């Protein structure tokens, strides 16, 4: 991640151990890794779903942000649907996020999160309000 990307990242993304691997603004695409440690587990010993949802929201949001024409364009998540599909043990997760549709003030994005073995753990779709 270059210095500009690191400066942009929120304290939440840093807490989640986010490391950007690839960004393609032309496709509205982002790929990043996250680190989920023992401090992310629930009583069942698995990663708490809220942390996975935060990772997915970050992927969707980053994909949308990559398509902005102006750097400081505000955006906010209006809604997000998350599906928890596979087992999420502590470790590194690799996620991909992409924009499905981008209008003037609304964007639709999706994301997937996989464990180190490449197994799908969770996916999400989200709607964003873009601009003021």
CATH superfamily: Hotdog Thioesterase
Q: CATH class, please? A: Alpha Beta
Using only C-alpha atoms, the radius of gyration works out to 14 Å
Distance between the termini: 28 Å
H/E series: HHEEHEEEE
* Helical content (DSSP H or I, runs of 4+): 10-25%
Query: What assembly state would you assign to the polypeptide chains in this entry?
Result: single chain
Describe the protein in words:
- This protein is α+β, with helices and mostly antiparallel strands.
- The chain has a single domain (3-45, 53-130), classed as Thiol Ester Dehydrase, Chain A (Roll), CATH 3.10.129.
- The chain is built from 3 helices and 6 strands.
- The chain has helices at residues 3-8, 11-15, 49-65; strands at 19-24, 29-36, 75-84, 91-102, 106-115, 120-130.
- Strands 1-2-4-5-6-3 form a 6-stranded antiparallel beta sheet, with helices on one face.
- The chain starts with a helix and ends with a strand.
- The model has no long low-confidence stretch (mean pLDDT 92).
